[in-house]
Amino acid sequence: MTKLHGDTSSLKPSHVRLLQRLGERSVLPDRVLGPALARDLLDVALELNRRVGLFLDRRGRVTSVILGDAHSMQLPEFDRVRGVAGRLRGIRLVLTHLVAQGLDREELADLAKLRLDLVASIHRGPAGIMADVAVLSPPPPDARETFITATLPTVPLALLDPDHGPPARPDLPVPFDVFIRDREAQLVAATARARAEVDGTRAMAMVVHSGGPTVEARTNELRELCQTAGVALIDLVKQRRPHPDPRTFFGSGKLREVLVHALEQDVEVLICDPELSASQARTIANLTDLKVIDRTMLILDIFAKHATSADGKLQVELAQLRYNLPKMVGKGTMMSRLAGGIGGQGPGESKLEIDRRRANDRINDLERRLEKLKKQRDQKRARRRRNDVPVVAIVGYTNAGKSTLLNTVTQSKVDAEDKLFATLDPTVRRIRFPNEREIVMLDTVGFIRDLPPALMQAFSATLEEVADADLLLHVVDATDPDKDQQIETVESILGELDAGSVPRFVVYNKCDGLLDEDIEVLERRRRGVRLEVTRAFFISALQRPTTRELLRAIEHHLWARGRTADPPTEAFEGEPADVVPLPLREPDD
After folding, report:
1. 117 near 168, Cβ under 8 Å?
2. Of 19, 124, 213, 316, which sits most exposed with the smallest number of CB within 10 A?
3. pLDDT over 70 for what percent of the chain?
4. pLDDT for 299-310, tens place per residue?
5. 586 pLDDT higher than 60
6. Alpha carbons 506 and 475: distance in angstroms, whole number
7. Residue 110: which of 154, 36, 33, 55 has the closest Cα?
8. 359 domain residue, yes or no
9. Domain that holds residue 222
10. Is residue 549 predicted with pLDDT exceeding 70?
11. How many CA atoms lie within 13 A of 427 on its CB side?
12. Angle of helix 351-386 relative to helix 460-467, nearest 10 degrees?
């Protein structure tokens, strides 16, 4: 039975019957719309002074009648899923315009979003019934899109009749059944070609910014995050405004353009920067079938992939639960569950409430387990203090080369990749200086600007090691154009961790790619920084000889602060092989 959609409460019963009879009509499969049905559809719309539309399947049967108001029309949702892998919906939309005007932006957006076979608007003109038509077309061979929207200028409805349409008009969708089969085959081929060219989940990024020199660095960082997460970033769209729109993130008009563009590119995920609110995520998700995430969720996904230890997995799960808990929203009482006995009347406990309660229970359980692990780390730190073993922590922005430096100095094989957050679980290695002096070197999680609070809170126990260190090695990627902002970010996070007063060396890494004058500029710049230890070192973490001066300075510093018993040796004039890596164990084992 044909479904009637729209507000019919103000209609006469006779008008309702007219609409219902429209739903019983059909047209020949090779026609977009028959002239008799078009005439009756326009008559009903003009009599009601409201827009009326029809969904027709490829057999020409009317499947839905849609009633709007004088200016707009809300389309119903489809029960069945189609339109994947380049296929079309198998449904065309024919609607009325009360005045002579072409298809508007909303109607073209519906064509792309729902992957309709065709959208046609009809109205009366001097030459009779006129039609504006839009269809999806395959893109040029060298384009990145999977389809484009092709619109036809206003034409008489008679030209859409295969018995009258001249063959000199190949842009006309006639005969319709042949046209739409060929068009769908072209779109399927275009989609397969586009997906074969891209490895990974296809995504589009939406960035809101207020201008300034950091915009380019922030967008580049978002691209690197996508690469690390295995996401193929097809396009990145920026909008300059003081703050994201509280409802739609972008402005509503700009968002609609972006969504249509995302559908053209066969995008599966939308990534928003900065963080989305729950209402913004719902609004964008309701406008499209695409998955919507933000930068914070992307970082959490990267952490979940890279967590290998039990400690790291627990902390990532805790961060995800804390982040998602405020975003759990329900749909009234439609998912409610009744309880038995006294107090169980009414809608009962909703599924949302159950999910929230389970999430809170899981958070409490994770916090208890992490507290036990924290006590174990406290005991290890206490043993190191009793044995008077100095701790040197390597900190810095993500992908600055911290793990590579640890591998070079300690001859370890810690996983070190050229991607963000390759290291998630803190790594401890012991090395022995000449005269039997030992230290512990600690590799930590990389920092990033606007570090999600959920991650900071979940990883606070692990990052306590930084505040208890005797010396910090702040590793900086000297080749990054955004290094000054990255240094400020790291210093800010160290302050939040109560590690702002811990002495540190600034280690500029990847200096083999710099000129001598560039290094001189960096050295002059560091002299003005107010830190307890302001000395800067210029190394290449892949070249062990460049770390000699750094290792000698570490020994001098620890001896000057009384952390080693004997004065430092000058043995570093030879190969740094005098620094002996030791097996990973606690000092009192």
Report:
1. no
2. 213
3. 83
4. 888 888 877 777
5. no
6. 6
7. 55
8. no
9. 199-301
10. yes
11. 22
12. 20
